[in-house]
Amino acid sequence: MTEIQAAPAPTMPRIGDPAPAFTASTTQGEITFPADYAGRWVILFSHPADFTPVCTTEFMTFASLEDKFADMNTALVGLSVDGLYSHIAWLRTIKERIRFRDMSDVEVTFPLIDDISMTVARLYGMIMPGEDSTKAVRAVFIIDPKGIIRTIIYYPLSTGRNFDELLRVVTALQTADAFSVATPADWRPGEPVIVPPAGSCGTAKDRMAGHEEGVTCIDWFFCTKEISEEQIAEAIRVP
Ligand code: BEZ
Questions:
Q1: Residues 25-64: pLDDT tens digits?
Q2: Is-catalytic flag, 201?
């Protein structure tokens, strides 16, 4: 009888897991992750390689949105499996030479991790051997102020990320936490949010009868309420 032996599956963190801890050299000095970011949201993202065009457009876009993310109490940390000198030379070239859309003279001031050993990329499951065994794919981990992974998004090497979506997901997570709600398909701040289903028959009946202030129910499981953009902005303001 042939014995089938499965190779051990590579471990990958999942939504709801604590962000795996590491210490790394970056273009902004050493970081201890996620401890250095306690109390802040963080987007930890990987890119395949320095001096590649799609990554260059992504870095310029991340850098141009850094203040907007900071206003949402969200820090940026990049990673590729290149070394520090390559990172520094690439970021200098971006600043001195590259124009993309209306961006030029862009200075990247958030940390870019040196992961030439691939230690962090492997720890976070950023290497997808079927796509490329020596480069990290475009992974995005959104980690909350308690160090818990709340969102994981992967893009292939050929496709640059959608930054409207990254901003939208951070806003949606922060809104969900602040108001104990969920957000529907394609939600944008200012649109109605979903009120989680009632826990008891009594509450469901009250909701359906319109007794819960501000809550509109189309069916017992489908209730929404309005939260204004101003309420959201106030709730997610940097403490
Ligand atoms: C790029 O960023 O342009 C890129 C990187 C790896 C493979 C393909 C494109």
A1: 999 999 999 999 999 999 999 999 999 999 999 999 999 9
A2: no
User: Which residue(s) pair with 43 in the sheet?
Assistant: 76, 142
Integer Cα distance of 34 and 197 in angstroms:
33
Our mutation pick for probing the ligand 1 site, out of 54, 86, 135, counting the most ligand atoms within 8 A of Cβ, is: 54
How far is residue 138's CA from residue 92's CA, in Å, rounded to a whole number? Answer: 22
pLDDT band, residue 1 (cuts 50/70/90): low
Helix (H) or strand (E) holding 45: strand 41-46
* Residue 52 contacts residue 136 (beta carbons within 8 Å): no
Q: What is the value of pTM for the model shown?
A: 0.93
Question: Would you state the torsion angle of the CA atoms of residues 218, 185, 15, 56, taken in this order, to the nearest 10 degrees?
Answer: -170
For residue 113, the cross-strand partners are: 26, 79
- Around ligand 1, the residues with Cβ closer than 6 Å are 48-49, 52-55, 157-158
Among candidate residues 174, 176, 171, the one with its CA nearest the CA of residue 189? 171
CA-based end-to-end distance of the chain:
64
